Amino acid sequence: MGGGDEVRNKQVVLRQHVTGFPKEEDMAITTSNTIKLKLPEGSAGVLVKNLYLSCDPYMRNLMNAGTGMPGYLPNYTPGSPLFGYGVSKVVDSGSPDFKIGDLVWGITGWEEYTVISSTDGLTKIEDTSVPLSYYTGLLGMAGFTAYVGFHEICSPKQGECVFVSAAAGAVGQLVGQFAKLLGCYVVGSAGSKEKIDLLKNKFGFDEAFNYKEEEDLDATLKRYFPEGIDIYFENVGGKMLDAVLVNMKLHGRISACGMISQYNLEKPEGVHNLVNVVTKRLKIHGFIQSDHFHLYNQFRDLTLRYIKEGKITYVEDIAEGLEHAPAALVGIFKGKNVGKQAVFITRD
Ligand code: NAP
Predict the structure, then answer these.
(1) Are residues 37 and 131 both part of a single domain?
(2) Distance from the CA of 341 to the center of ligand 1, in angstroms?
(3) Which one of 116, 135, 144, 335 has the lowest number of neighbouring Cβ atoms within 10 Å?
(4) The total number of structural domains that make up the chain
């Protein structure tokens, strides 16, 4: 196909703002959009072909009505394509930092081709000796979140007792492995037997439990942490956070990464045991990974080394085809994904 040809651009658009659990029908696949495979003269951005898309929990928040939270990505607009992290190939470039054929990861559209007018958030992929899909998760935003949320926010030490919720997800599986590499005692929670098996037998967690089968989470945590928890990597919020608060050790740290159990509720659940923050002198530290992006190269080099030394492994759940992206995204809120949920669009 010659440069400048106009092609059909399949897209995933938001049909309407969402309340409650998102449904596949909240999104639509459209083929009416066309795009010229050449940037207009003078453009400073890039035109990319999208190869993989990442399904991430924060995307649910962008489906809400309103403009979005300050300092965060703007909410989606009904009738327009969704956007999120992805791995793409540069098809045309007006930027001195990217050339045609470069592989990049960063925020792109949920469509076959995207014009990215500001390249500030794009990262060039230099090492392609690992699966390209890793840049949607392990070596992309989710993996970096695990690194920042554990190493930077928790200041972990060898021998400490670490609890990770949503532990089999994109972030949690790596937090647990980082904690094991440091010599911590690590327990994870997840929502199915298959995930518990992965945590114990593939990712090397010391213990893991299915939170859906536990009637009394406080008693469960006491069973796994008889002397209490030093570090809680918080991915879910709600009842789990309440049970954790009473099981934290004195001077424990909570890395508040996310609270997925609350994202689809019209009225958030309350937290009842907050007084433990005072009596146990706890530190709860919320963070957003992008605020720490200056550490990305450090994280990437360390993680690539761990992968090549066989010290880290990663499980992905990859849906095939843009038309399956809505189901894949909705699935993460039901725990259907086993490992990092991504969508494969095309090889190149
Ligand atoms: P993920 O791989 O998409 O996994 C999400 C998992 O959450 C699901 O597979 C499900 O697993 C679990 N889940 C869903 N609904 C739940 C509920 N009601 N209660 C308990 N667990 C539930 O997620 P991720 O990408 O690892 O993200 C994990 C957390 O980190 C999310 O809260 C996300 O918002 C947050 N995050 C924060 C940042 C940041 O910068 N702060 C960046 C990335 C992600 P089960 O089968 O175990 O239920």
Answers:
(1) yes
(2) 11
(3) 335
(4) 2
Q: What residue's CA is closest to ligand 1, atom 32? A: 258
pLDDT digits (tens, 9 = 90+) for 122-136: 999 999 999 999 999
**Residue 170 Cβ < 6 Å to ligand 1:** yes
Residue 236 Cα to ligand 1 midpoint, Å, equals 6
Residue 264 has pLDDT above 90, yes or no: yes
Q: Whose CA is nearest to atom 8 of ligand 1?
A: 335
* Pocket-testing residue among 177, 187, 235, 289, ligand 1, by greatest number of atoms within 8 A of Cβ: 235
pLDDT at residue number 72: 83
- Measured by CA distance, the residue closest to atom 17 of ligand 1 is 261
Closest ligand 1 atom to the C-alpha of 58?
34
**Same-domain pairing of 152 and 279:** yes
Q: Give the C-alpha separation, 50 to 102, whole Å.
A: 12
| Ligand 1 atom index nearest CA of 171 | 26
Residue nearest to atom 15 of ligand 1 (CA): 333
Q: Tens digits of per-residue pLDDT, 154-179? A: 999 999 999 999 999 999 999 999 99
Do 79 and 218 belong to one domain? no
Distance 166 CA to ligand 1 centre (A): 6
206/283 same-domain check: yes
CATH code: domain of residue 172? 3.40.50.720
Identify which of 260, 314, 337 to mutate to test ligand 1's pocket (most ligand atoms within 8 A of the CB).
260
For residue 47, the enclosing domain spans: 6-137+314-344
